[in-house]
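hi!! sorry for the late reply, been swamped w classes. u asked for the two structures so here they r. pasted raw, havent cleaned anything up. first the sequence of the first protein and right below it the tokens
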Amino acid sequence: MRSIWRRAHRAARGAAKMAWALVDTHHPLLVQIVPMRRCNLACAYCNEYDGVSQPVPLELMRRRLDKLADLGTSMITISGGEPLMHPDLDAMIARMRERGVISSLITNGYYLSRERIERLNEAGLDYLQVSIDNVEPDEVSMKSLRLLEPKLRWLAEHAEFDVNVNSVVGAGIKHPEDALAVARRARELGFTSTVGILHDGHGQLEPLGQKELAVYEELKAFGSRGTARLNAVFQDKLARGESNEWSCRAGARYLYVDEHGTVHYCSQMRGAPGLPLETYNRADIDREYVTKKSCAPYCTINCVQRIAIFDNWRAPQTVRPLPAVPPVPAPPARA
């Protein structure tokens, strides 16, 4: 009964946030924040981790979360690195819920256990995404279905939050057909499933081959839900190597906040606008809302595109971007 009540309450909160997104354009809809750059894995295609950096202190993370809540942020997704390595993750999730923000988490799943899932329930987590790249681990990725199968079963049995399993095609994934097996297993366990098209080091499209395209087309038969369904036209054109005409609202409706507390357009456009979160304000949001991003036509950052659905029908973008600020250098990645 508690799970049913939480699902209904989550749906009501989400509907209210979506309605407010259509009414007011001066607040972020989704913020992805990094409390820890370190990761326990070293996926060959990933440029968002290192092997040595320390977790951001809890009090500093609370201040950043409070700042985002003050900006009116609808949802915050904690990512990394691997966020489950942060010792104070539960307290961050609880803080988001205290401030009325929808809470989300992206993980590779390796640190999930029955006890860890119960702690996420108690903290009030709303959504969790597990990334699985293949059926068997290989030199490209250790995020495999075989190794994570016990974790998925524990989630199906104990999680009171919604679970999505995301698989990928492109950019060096050796067996693209594995995405089909991942999606099937996710649906068998009662989860939603999505597929992403991997990008190069600048967030731009790497065209799919014929085998990858065939897998992508078959995956479409699984169907999508919510904004993922509305975003299908973006994904379809990218899968065919075609550009999209859309208004990227990164820096306004979507923010990427790194471990240093700096606001970027996304994980692949670090340095733009490159401003500190502590001083970020409505003027910054309004400026970036109408700033045209040259990287948009071949962008594969799915979450940014999905957020843009709320505003693609509104005013065109006419402002040139601010000069990019070099991001703070990260510690060296694990060899």
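now the second protein. again sequence first, tokens right under
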Amino acid sequence: MPTNPDGALTGKAALITGAARRVGAAIVRKLHAAGANVVLHYRSSAEASEALARELNETRPNSVVLVGADLLDLSQLQTLPAVATSNFGSLDILVNNASTFYPTPMSDITEIDWDNLMGTNLKAPLFLSQAASSALRISNGLIVNIADIHGMRPLSRHPVYSIAKAGVIMLTMSLARELGPSIRVNAVAPGPVMWPEDGMDKELQAKIVDRTALKRPGSADDVARAVLFFATEAPYVTGQILAVDGGRSIGGW
């Protein structure tokens, strides 16, 4: 039985990239709790992926499967939608969550930085959406891209990342036009919902939070709720970017 009594996604299958930890894991938990079966993609976090799958399969047997793949290798992308259809009979939701984030001061940008940040954040979502489109058309499915508010306003010392996330926003709107009417495409643009894993100065954290309208940071679960909204409560919404940022994007920067 689904852990969500409403079971809004019972019988649906979701593929979530970069799903082992942080925001990705929160999205997995949220969709799974609503009844979805989940294909959990990871690149290097095999141990965390296995632990999460084991936990969720204990609550609902055979409801989560794992797939390891390098999203920068386009030859591997075709296999991901097939994992969903072969295990669960369909693919209903694709969440392009996997991301790479690190600073690239203008004087230090290399071609490797460009290829990595643009590849993970923009190239992979485009080509995975292409690979998944046939299955999603059959199910009248949904693509949710995880963008960033810094795709709308650049983040200092992160020009390549900001450019890539701006591309994700336009990708979302473009695919909504290209893939309609059978596939909806939307994006969630988080603000300060999780601090970088390599740390951030406490004073800077406080400064960022103070620039939100709600005067507090968000959580990975806030992003997951937005994804669930698109999956369960928004059948007439496509091509839209939902900022989950506590009002940062309407305030001072």
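hope this helps!! also noticed smth abt the second:
The beta strands are 13-16, 37-42, 64-68, 93-96, 142-146, 184-190, 241-244.
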